[in-house]
Design brief:
This protein is an alpha/beta fold. Helices cover 51% and strands 14% of the residues. It is built from nine helices and six strands; from the N terminus they run ββαβαααβαβαααβα. α1 crosses α9 and α4 packs parallel to α5. The longest helix has 16 residues.
Length: 186
Amino acid sequence: MHADVPHPRPASPVSAPARNVVLVGMPGSGKSTVGRRIASRLGLAFVDIDHVIEAAEGKTLCQIQRDTSQEAFLACEERHASSLEVSGHVVATGGSVVYSERAMRHLGGGGTVVFLDVPVETLADRLGCLETRGVIIKPGHTLADLAGERRPLYQRYADVTVLCDDTPDACADRVAAAVRGLVIGT
């Protein structure tokens, strides 16, 4: 029902192999772990926007979130995601990047956006304590609330949705198979 579901979006006039694979999904969905494996399978480079933010700001994401408001963190994430200029990369985004239409237009304009869809129960097992993971969540909300809020945004921006509820290698294989022709023109 979920696996490899293409979503229509106007094609961008970027020629292969310059296209990126842009991974979106909830925290714990595997954007970083699976992303590295996808990059290896497709022969692409890998970049994690969370690491770009940390390097540019000189702080960990948790420190940034602790020292600023949620709105300020989201603005910081938008700024860095919107200014990322790479081609031929697998891009792991932060789970909250979909709150920024500007960032998603930029990222999606140069790549194929893949929603790594993971059931909430699996996410809960993977994540543990949300506070120590630096998850942007409204006070009093649960992981299920957050997933319900973000899911329509992930679906809105995704070109492809892939169910990623098993091993990182199996997920990477499915994503690579789903995007290979869209990204590298094979």
